[in-house]
Each structure stands twice: as structure tokens, then as C-alpha cells.
Task: structure prediction
Amino acid sequence: MFRTSAAALAALLVAAPAIAEPVAYDFDKSHASLVFSYNHLGYSTTDGRFNDWNGELVIDQETPANSKIAMTVNVDSLATFWGERDAHFKSADFFEVEAHPTATFVSTTVEKTGENTLSVAGELTIKGITKPATFDVTINTIGEHPMAKTPAVGLDAKTVVKRSDYGMDMFVPYVGDEVTISFSAEALKAK
Result:
């Protein structure tokens, strides 16, 4: 009886599908961008980017709720393609870079919302102020990278925040309070 049960258990284990583990990824910064945009006086959309940031990404394809992301941004790397504006944004009127050199986002929940879409909620900290933020994420592709021959993921994420929530209300409402943050990236399986 014991031998038969052991054999049946062994057969069941061999036949059972393997449970996929969460996979950690490293961002390929040569194919990634972290940008923001806002309305300027109703005349135009002004945009900028952060050139220096680091992130940790873990994806669980079978159970997306187990996925997570954490980002740290060097705020001094801000670039709006106009030096005087960059200096003003880094001053105490806006980011106050000397006192608050980094901004962070740490996910708290990940929810699958469609075949290739996710809602990633978390805590966004800017200028020492932490508020909830939710990114709408589209997974562009996930699979073996055709050149690197390793598992890879490509994604686009977007959210809208109010800069006044983070102590940056100068020129509101004339210069838009709502700021769109967009992140696009490729990432390769961590070695």
C-alpha cells in the first residue's frame, strides 16, 4: 500500500505543472526614459526628463499581485532643455534639490486590469512629501529578448499627479497643477 501511494505521489509531482517563480529584472537604461509634462498658460505643453534614476523590478506572470517595483530618482538630473528653468525647478520654489535630492516610488499593490495592462498603486515621495499614486501600465512584450537571448520585458507606465500636493504650487493655476509622469523601459532578467 505504501509503495503504491508513494509511486502515485511521485507520478503526480512529475505531471504537475511547474509553478513559475517571480523574476527580477534589471532596467536597460539605454532603452528607457522617465519624463514629465505640464500645461504652460494654456499655450503649450512643456516637458522634461530625469536622466539619473535606479529601479528594482520583480514580475510574477502567474500572480501579478506578487509583482513589485521601486524607483529612486536623482532630482538634480532634471532637464527641461532650458537651463534657467532647470535651475528654477531645482530651487526652493519647486523641488528644493539641496534639501530633497531624491524622489521615490514604491509599489504597494499590483492589479491586472486587462490582457496586457496593470494598475500599479504605491507611494510617491517628492520633496519629502509622500502621497498615493497609481500608474496605468501596459506590458508591451514579455519573452526572450531577440538580441540578448534572455528573458526580457518592455513596458510603458503613466500617471497624473498634482504638483501642489508636493509643496510646488508656484504659478498655479496659470501654469498647470497637473503633471503627467511617463516611464517607458526595457528590462532584462537579472543575472
Q: What stands out?
A: The beta strands are 23-40, 44-50, 53-59, 68-74, 78-79, 102-114, 117-126, 129-144, 151-162, 178-189. Helices lie at 2-15, 83-90. Confidence is low (pLDDT under 50) at residues 1-17. The two ends are 46 Å apart (CA to CA).
